[in-house]
Amino acid sequence: MSAVIDHDHAHGHHDHHGGYGGIMRWITTTNHKDIGTLYLWFSFLMFGVGGIMAVVIRAELFSPGLQFVNPDFFNQLTTMHGLIMIFGAIMPAFVGFANWQIPMMIGAPDMAFARLNNWSFWLLPFAATLLALSFLMPGGAPGVGWTMYAPLTVQMGMGMDFTIFAVHLLGMSSILGAINIITTILNLRAPGMTLLRMPLFVWTWLITAYLLLAVMPVLAGAVTMTLTDRHFGTTFFNAAGGGDPVLYQHIFWFFGHPEVYVVALPAFGVISQVIPAFSRKPLFGYASMVYATSAIAILSFIVWAHHMYTTGIPVSGQLFFMYATILIAVPTGVKVFNWVATMWKGSLSFETPMLFALGFLFMFTLGGFTGLVLALVPVDIQLQDTYYVVAHFHYVMVAGALFAAFAGIYFWLPKWTGKMYDETLGKIHFWLTLVFLNMIFFVQHFLGLAGMPRRIPDYPLMFETWNKISSLGAFGMGLAQLLFLYIVVKCIRSGAPAPQKPWEGADSLEWTHLPTPVPYHSFETPPVLH
Amino acid sequence: MNLEQANRRLCMRLALIALGMFGFGFALVPFYGQICAALGVNSLTQRDSVSNTQIDASRTVTIELDSNTHDLPWRFRPLVNHLQVHPGELATVEYEIVNQRAAPVTGQAVPSYGPQFAGEYFKKLECFCFTQQTLAPGETRRMPVTFVVDPKLPRDVNTITVSYTFFEVAGRGGKS
Ligand code: HEM
Ligand SMILES: [Cu+2]
Hints:
Radius of gyration of chain B: 23 Å
Mean pLDDT of chain B: 87
Strand content of chain A: under 5%
Largest interface: A-B, 36 and 32 residues
Bound molecules: protoporphyrin IX containing FE, copper (II) ion
Distance between the termini of chain A: 15 Å
Strand order of the largest sheet of chain B: 3-1-9-5-7
Oligomer: heterodimer
Mean pLDDT of chain A: 93
Helix content of chain B: 10-25%
Shape of chain A: globular
Low-confidence stretches of chain A: 1-16
CATH class of the largest domain in chain B: Mainly Beta
CATH architecture of the largest domain in chain B: Sandwich
CATH architecture of chain A: Up-down Bundle
């Protein structure tokens, strides 16, 4: 119980921090909790924007033929939906968790570079603005897909340049954030908090930050090459000048596959905090979890060409990337095993965070299995660029990463705000999301197997039934997230006061050593660990 | 060393890693160039060497010729649309380009094959795609392609479509 509480919680207001009030407080803040909050609200906003785009896409696909949007605009929506969800919603959400939780979990007063931290966040709104502006350019936003493949990117209008600069800013933000997180974890741990005593959430973020550091600059390089090809006469990807569009794919996926683990590893971290807390048992196989996470990160660098089986790479190459990809299933299997073993003979209870964690466990594993199916060369040649791929990566990213984010929000919201959310509404939110999610994406497996291509605004009549179900699911999913917003706002405004440790089995420092709500400044003198 | 110095040092190191990885992205370009050269993939516009020119008169393969331009003010066509060859037999076809712009234009032709895998059996000894072509305003040029179809071509392939596309080389005597 170290920190001095320097503001008045009874009023539930957050004025008088850092000398400024109102909006200036948020613009100038260097407090890790404020910045975590900013990241999370930004992420929610982007989730809404990307979600609206998804709903428009699904509305268009409700029936065959063209109804609401023309094919050009449809492609722009798909592209922006992907970019916004990955770089605007999922990644910032987990950086938000990192900001809030890492200092508290390792007993540090704040992040290592507080002002840099402010910068990392405030780059994001500029990036989002650039993305939004690209819609207003002649020719609109780029309709190239979130993978931004050459040569199409070289032919797009000005919107492409806006998108490229947005990706530069997003990359810069991630790199600065990663440097900050690594320095915090390595240098600011409380005495006695050895590396192998850190909560697993901190471990997954340490490894994720190294991944970010290794791959975000490569993405920045890839889009920079696209930019110079467009405007400065270079021919990296232009066959006429001796370049090669396939080269782009190699560079992009060198970033792209580790990127999926940038999204997935922090999600693993959250789940590894939630499941033990609601099983009232310590995490099974802690050390093997750390090793499995590292193994996944390392292997993720040698599987990139499983996205490129059909680009004409030699059979020996296809085999190598197939086996390497399948190998990743081993450490991933270790993790799933450990989560299940943690629950084995535990005394389980099923509050909302646990429900989302269990949803994650089932559906992320399903997404992993369809990943294995896609890893098989002969199968992928058939399924690549069909709705099967769409179903696969939405199971890992929505049912995986997003469910983990929901689990984390419900888990820590009482700690952050000092108030309990409405448990009944939380459970309703979970069940609605679960049902609608499977309604949207499960049927897309069938569509893909039957041959419906992805990134397409129209389709033959025979696909109509499944598409209708999928679209209805999407509308329901959208509405269910309004309920989530209501639950969070209700919790902040009028939730019942939360005890210091609302979850019996939770055992990391923020629960055991800090009051609820956590004071604005925590651990200014390091906690004493036994 | 106090904490602030330690933090700053670590920060510098990590920033160097990020910078290094930015460079690594660019280093991949020559690296892939080397790999392709070493493995002999992606050698579409390079001269092939042919060692064994035993003619397999028992088979006949139809070669279909196609031509396209990509955003280029050229008229580009083969003088014959198709011909029949025996595997192993040396053959020559001619293409014609006309520059219709009142300015010199430089272009580069890139071949593609149907079926795709037939490309590795279509050996080019001479081709206008080996170099860039610069045409004066209004100039007409006829250019040969000399080739051999490798006798190892799988027996079920009876037709190979050879399609050339001319791209403008930006910044050299044309719009950029
Ligand atoms: C862990 C979280 C994961 C995420 C976030 C993720 C995400 C994605 C995404 C976005 C794509 C689509 C690429 C495109 O635009 O074409 C994709 C494709 C693919 N994924 Fe995953 N994935 C994950 C896990 C896995 C796993 C565990 C495997 C296999 C063991 C796997 C294997 C593949 C393969 C082979 C493809 C290529 C499909 C194709 O291009 O046809 N993924 N993934
Ligand atoms: Cu991948």
